[in-house]
Amino acid sequence: MHTKHLELEQVGIDFPTPKGPFTALQDVNLKISKGEFVSLIGHSGCGKSTVLNIVAGLHQATTGGVILDGAEVKQPGPERAVVFQNHSLLPWLTVYKNVELAVKSTMRGKSKNEMRDWIMHNLELVHMTHALDKLPSEISGGMKQRVGIARALAMEPKVLLMDEPFGALDALTRAHLQDSLMEIHADLGNTVIMITHDVDEAVLLSDRIVMMNNGPAATIGEILDIELPRPRDRLALADNKQYNHYRHEVLTFLYDKQKKVETVSSRANQAPTTNKHSQQLAKPSGVSSEKKDAKKSDAA
User: Fold this and answer.
1) Is 281 inside a domain boundary?
2) What number is the average pLDDT over the span 191-207?
3) CA 69, CA 281: separation in Å to the nearest integer?
4) Which of 20, 84, 117, 272 would suit a FRET pair with 238, their CA atoms being 20 to 30 Å apart?
5) Hey, which bits of 164-292 come out as E strands?
6) Is residue 241 part of a domain?
7) 51 Cβ partners below 8 Å, 6+ apart?
8) Among 7, 74, 49, 250, which residue's Cα sits nearest to residue 162?
9) Could you tell me where the DSSP H helices lie in 212-275?
10) Is the same domain home to 235 and 199?
11) For residues 162 and 124, what is the distance between their CA atoms, to the nearest angstrom?
């Protein structure tokens, strides 16, 4: 990429509990280049969101720290904008006003015309200029997320932090937004850190995929470089050997970790007797719910 400007050094964090400190993260080390797109992937509870929140300044690391362009990150700031899975738009403000709110907080001293031009520019990036006067309740989930991205971009962040931004959307809408994000990243060259549970999304969008070990005391397990040329076309990549190799590498990592979790869990839950209830618990996830659904459909 370019020059390294974001560093996580020996990052760890403890959370207080009634039984004493809980170590969520330990010894997380990562250097990210300017303009790089990095995805964090791993099982639930592996500390992905905690890493993102520390970079955002929403959590303070217990050990180590985050350095952005030579300055330690100690609190939230406009140079690090966050896009959450929930769009977090203010429901009483229009699309335009939601973006304007961010612009007013970061462009003090600019004229109204300059602000309006900048708002329109960012809404144009996400293809939402047609809905300026709509309230959030009047647009779809995908459109809301586009406005959330426009609001974040309007702050001119050095780093765009995305916490499963497309996780709540249907597959087709998610694909359109992924394509839009690739276009925006190509145009602006922002550094992006994105959390995802979607392996295909991670491979399609990323320059590197950071795979997290399971917690507690979670840390980085492996880092995979994605050396696919840009711009990327999802249809062309569907049969690409290199793409499928990267996909296999991530799935192998996640499968091995999940298998270890299941093994430990099953040992911990072993019972000395095998009654009907314990046999039911030992069945694969979803069996009992499927039977319930079947009974409901029969009754209907």
Assistant:
1) no
2) 97
3) 52
4) 84
5) 191-195, 208-212, 220-225
6) yes
7) 8, 11, 25, 28, 40, 212
8) 49
9) 234-237, 241-268
10) yes
11) 20
pLDDT band at residue 45, thresholds of 50, 70 and 90?
A: confident
Give the domain extent around 111.
90-156
By residue count, the chain amounts to 300
The pLDDT score that the predictor gives to residue 64 is: 97
Res 278: pLDDT: 42
Burial 148-178 (b: 16+ CB within 10 A, else e): bbbbbbbbbbbbbbbbbbbbebeeebbbebb
Q: Could you count the other beta carbons within 10 Å of the beta carbon of residue 82?
A: 23
Structural tokens at position 10: 């020996």
**H or E element in which residue 119 lies:** helix 112-125
At 291, is the secondary structure helix, strand, or coil? helix
Considering the domain architecture, whether residues 233 and 250 belong to the same structural domain is answered as yes
CATH code of the domain in which 261 resides: 3.40.50.300
Segments of the chain assigned E as strands: 4-15, 22-33, 37-41, 63-68, 71-72, 80-83, 159-163, 191-195, 208-212, 220-225
Q: Specify whether the CB–CB gap between 3 and 14 falls below 8 A.
A: no
59 belongs to a structural domain: yes
Number of domains in the chain: 2
